[in-house]
């Protein structure tokens, strides 16, 4: 019979039409918002195998006469099993891990670090030798530690299995110090996997710096900041021409109170890259702490000027800089400039109560009572119960 009248041909045609319909529907409508990587990849692999078998039905030939040899049958089964399962381990494991990793990155970009932890851990369980998976997991833990104030009893965290048991627990139930320990474990693992990657040493330096900054115990603060300096020295040995590392190293000396060494580090960063705006933000803090407000103001303005061209300030740092400039302009009686800085800050942090209170006060001082009322009413909606009476009095 003609090839196009065989049962196998119609079966293969149906398979192709169904595949095309699924692809079109997926492209036309939104994909599931929370796809599970393992079922998704395995389904795709199974569907591909089904297509191969369907094609085989179409092209099969009548069996030759005689008996199939038993050894040949065993070999065929073994080869078939290997052909099916080996790609899952060697090839699809990477796809599944990367799918989990991308899911974690998406959640982290939305500041949903608690939800990002679980997919990062899943990615590591599928591909435990990828150092950058640990790097991003460590950064997620670090962000949670930075924003968590709850303390909990110390947990034993010796490896990935211990972290996996905690992956679905809220940060408040884990506690600040345990989150720092989790970040330390993952970032050290990343460095051990790739010790020549500068980012791993620098991230450990950032971890200890933040840990020292938030610690209320002065001895712990000194210990963590000293460890931070040590890791930044290691990072600078690997990348001595990285301006941002010199600037961050200076920040640690500043936190230690060693202004002279901090200034040397900042000047080195400026020599290497005069267009790296965080250096000037750090310099501004140094000058302000030393009582030189005019030099501080010039440094802050230069940081904002460079950032306007190159966008090198991170959102939290940019928000802090607008806030500081707003305060300094207000103290100097430059109300219009203070207003402009606070308006920029409101764009970055629209739900910041302090910003709207400042804007209400500034508009009142500038004689724009309607805008002062508008800002005060926004502040009232954001205020905790204990502050509402004072804001309502301001409005009245």
General description of the model:
This protein is an all-alpha fold. About 80% of the residues lie in helices and about 0% in strands. The longest helix has about 40 residues, at about 70-110. It is globular, with a radius of gyration of 30 Å. The model has no long low-confidence stretch (mean pLDDT about 85).
Q: Strands, helices and their partners?
A:
Elements: H1 7-28, H2 37-59, H3 70-109, H4 113-126, H5 131-147, H6 160-166, H7 171-174, H8 176-193, H9 198-214, H10 218-238, H11 243-256, H12 259-272, H13 277-289, H14 293-310, H15 315-331, H16 335-348, H17 353-365, H18 369-382, H19 385-395
Helix pairs in contact: 1-2, 2-3, 3-4, 4-5, 5-8, 5-9, 8-9, 9-10, 9-11, 10-11, 11-12, 11-13, 12-13, 13-14, 14-15, 15-16, 16-17, 17-18, 18-19
Distinctive features:
single chain, 396 residues, mainly alpha, 19 helices
Task: Write a brief caption for the model.
The protein has helices at residues 7-28, 37-59, 70-109, 113-126, 131-147, 160-166, 171-174, 176-193, 198-214, 218-238, 243-256, 259-272, 277-289, 293-310, 315-331, 335-348, 353-365, 369-382, 385-395.
Distance between the termini: 93 Å
- Assembly annotation: single chain
Give the proportion of residues in helices: over 70%
Radius of gyration: 30 Å
How much beta, percentage-wise? under 5%
Unreliable residue stretches:
none
Main sheet characteristics = none
By DSSP, the count of extended strands is 0
SS-based structural class?
mainly alpha
Overall pLDDT level: 85
Helical segment tally?
19
The outline comes out as globular
Q: What is the N-to-C succession of helices and strands? A: HHHHHHHHHHHHHHHHHHH
